[in-house]
Write a structure and sequence with these properties.
This protein is an alpha+beta fold. The chain contains two helices and nine strands. The strands form two sheets. Strands 1, 2, 5, 8 and 9 form a five-stranded mixed sheet that branches. It has a four-stranded antiparallel sheet with strand order 4-3-6-7, with no helix packed on it.
Length: 142
């Protein structure tokens, strides 16, 4: 084999190896960014809600929901950024929804959420969501 053919083979092999490496690294942009999380506590006239749902209605019509926990807390993962309409829904609790298993002594009661918080078109509760982790307590008044 002549030195010219040998160099050409090495060149082609090296070029192929570089192209494969480039193709494999195209999707490697590092770890994904951390999620945007909004969390807080939901109250009505100062009383903690111990069940229900929170909905975030974003500017691009995306809706993200979270369950209200028995301690009144909620956490919405990756809502749209910007001005968000917040809706809270409760009503009559479902049977067996006391949380904490059969030994739970938590009593869930019917909660009448005013329409100004439970209707996406009429809600008065609005927040500004920014990137990262944010605490937004939802303090409703009758």
């Amino acid at each position: 084999m002549s030195p010219t053919v040998n160099r050409f083979a090495i060149y082609i092999f090296g070029l192929g190896f570089a192209l494969v490496g480039l193709a494999l690294s195209a999707g490697c942009e590092g770890p994904p960014p951390p999620p945007n999380i909004v969390s807080g506590t939901v109250t009505l006239d100062g009383k903690v809600l111990n069940w229900g749902t929170v909905e975030f209605h974003g500017p691009e019509k995306q809706i993200k929901r979270a369950q209200i926990q028995t301690d009144g807390s909620y956490s919405v993962r990756n809502p749209e950024l910007g001005d968000i309409r917040v809706v809270v829904k409760a009503g009559i609790p479902p049977k067996g929804a006391a949380g904490g298993g059969p030994a739970s002594t938590m009593k869930l009661e019917k909660i009448d959420i005013p329409e100004k918080y439970s209707d996406p078109e009429k809600t008065e509760c609005r927040i500004k969501v920014t990137a990262g982790q944010t605490t937004q307590n939802i303090d409703m008044k009758k």
